[in-house]
Amino acid sequence: MTSAPLETVAAPERRRRLRPSGGQDLVFRVVLRCAGAAVLLLMVLVGTFLFTKAISALRLAGWSFLTTEEWEPDSGHFGIAAVLTGTILIAGVAISIAVPLATGMALYVSEYAPQRLRRILINMIDLMAAVPSVVYGLWGFAFLQAHVIGLARWLSTYFAWFPLFKVTGSDPRDPLATETIYTSSTFIAGMVVALMVAPVICSIMREAFSQAPIGEREGAYALGATRWGMVRSVVLPFGKGGMIGGTMLGLGRALGETIAVYLIISPVFVIQPHILQNGANSVSALIALRYGESGPVALSALMAAGVALFILTLIVNFAAGSIVARSRSGAESEA
Amino acid sequence: MLRRVTRVVLAAAAAVTLTFLLTGSPPAATAAGPYVPVNGAGSTWSENAIRQWASNVQQYGMRIDYAGTGSTDGRNQFASGLVDFGVSEIPYGKDDNAAAEAKPKFKYAYMPIVAGGTAFMYNLSIGKNRVTNLRLSGDTLVKIFTNVITKWNDPAIKADNPGLALPARKIVPVVRSDGSGTTAQFSTWMANQYPSLWNAYCARAGRKTPCGVTSIYPTIAGTATTAQSSSTGVAAYVAQDASVGAITYVEYSYALNLHFPVAKIRNKADYYIEPTAPSVAVALLKAKINNVQGSQDYLTQDLRGVYTNADKRTYPLSSYSYMLIPVDEENDRFKVAKGKTLGDFAYYFLCEGQQQADSLGYSPLPKNLVEAGIAQVKRIPGVDVKAINLSGCHNPTFSSDGSNTLAKNAPQPRACDKVGPVQCTTGTGGAKSETPTSNGGNKNNNNTNHSSGGTGNSANPASTAGTGTPTAGSTAGAVIDPDTGQVVGGTGGGGADSVSAIPVSLSNQLDPTLKLVLIIVACALLLGLTVGPPLIARLLHGGGRR
What we know:
Largest interface: A-B, 43 and 49 residues
Strand content of chain A: under 5%
Mean pLDDT of chain B: 81
Radius of gyration of chain B: 30 Å
Oligomer: heterodimer
Low-confidence stretches of chain A: 1-8, 329-335
């Protein structure tokens, strides 16, 4: 419907472009190319910098860098097996909480909310994204943690058969059992990170949902679909690319989240798959924790951990890019 | 129009004169001293004092920005010229990271700023009553922090606390995850006093032994030990309601601020002492200060004498905190302009600031260190050298005859603080409420075999010392469980104000099979309620059409 008049307008423009483009156009194009190239250049520079700083530690540790769990750089014993697993676990928890939350928020805002409420909600979600992460961290440490213990205990009591929810050393029958075993865990850090990435994911999903073509929506209604039926058959399939892209972007942010995680976790240097249990770790929190107090070797080791995180984030983002590019809504939103 | 303009001008002029009249001196003061802001970073141990002093000198127009990022970070930032001054508990090159540690390339010196005690703040309750009078001896303390003792009802803790029937709760030692001077002070004490326990722990944690002084506390995964960053972090963690059973090491001031108790630590004279200002001052009389003026480590401390100080008022984990200052010459960061601010700030806290040390939870510096500190201030490049009249400082340690008044007049510990069957009931740190003890505590000062009207003490002295034999004074028939310290069987009731039973809230325990059945039923119901109605509706609908 809308594309037909656009094409008729575009046709004469295309003919005009046959003339060699003028000075203004050329300048504009050069500026844009430079901006684009600068982004690439920056990424390459960051990568090269990290790699050159990290190379001495990588040479010292060799392949064991990927398999060692401890972090004692000054005695030459260090690796990212524990911290990288911890990072992925925290991000995993964050995403599995944030995605349903963000999907719900985005669907409500774009499809159900009345016009006036919608504007307020969008502002609130943007505000959520603007709150500094240290505020989330402090809130998580001082407030949320105490309130999540009950949930964590309940999960570990009834779902301990699921390996991730196991808590070693917990005894729900012991009235004197310490509750600290459920604090400073991957789960709580993940929850706080979820709240931080949810608005980002939500905004992208909302954009994708709101671009679902009006004709198809009307078509679904005309065929007798309820609103939910329309959402399911038109909006969700159309927004799939945006959903996946938003999730991946959120994942990228969750992987790199530093200060909130730093404030909450109790760092351990073993692979800790029990997400409800005290003790977690992440690459970025490790860097924040140890950066200020490191000698040259330790600093280089931290840079190496940074390289690992950098590569992981790049992979995630590239994967997200390719998925979004392949989908319909992504193609639309990119154009 | 013109009239309105004149009125506005007049009003503005009146306002300006009024502000001048009201405030008066500040503009004059700023005119006298154009202070350049300086910033520092480091120790969280002494952060509370530095922050208070920094806010005190704000009225003179000085801006001191201080970031409590840990001593290790403070030393590193100072060395790499990121801050104007650093604050650290230990000098450069004293911990296990000495080889890798960067030292400043410019001239620097140590200046003592305040004394204090590394306190052991805990969160523990018996039933609903918060314990505020815990006592610990050195080896018990080390065993707690090295995961040898894991329960609060351990016989070793019981032996220290004969008056308390501590619950079978897990001990959660909370340690620092970042590089910390408090950790360094604590590990210095452990490495010096209990090397075998400390080294065994380090070996289990995968560190090289002998482990010695470390700024980063080694932790073993799977133990109850929890690591948190910064003093504020560990203290806030222990203060949470969920952290019952936790104990951590922080400067005394943190416990005061959070209204939490600290453990009294046993000294060489067999008294359990709290890290108050006088007991820290007494302890530090035995600190050996490096008096070699030319030495790089001039004024640094050797605390071995403090740990073994035989004065019965001693708190053994006392120490001085140090500021790292650039001296003699400008460096890349520290220019002459900053010298005036840093110098005046130093003059302030070395002189007047020390009065506040006690109320903040620290202990004032003695006269010799204040004098040495003031001499160090003179070396700061660009300092506005002042002649400080020491008698005007009103430092509680100063006296006319050169002795340390605070230490001299320090109160003698009470009899109930001595090792023995009686335990003081009074609170410690920021928690001033009393904790009832089963043996009456300081309320009845005849400390042995006290039995009131034949009812007997529920936890009698001898059994708590680990022998398990009832003594003459106690009622026959009251058998005491060696593990919990509670009376089992028998009818021996407690003394007048002693309660030996520990109320514990228990949830009703269900039979496991019944529980499983109930879970399944609940799930089925939930599923039926959500999925059922639409399914039934569809079935009915479909049936009708057919």
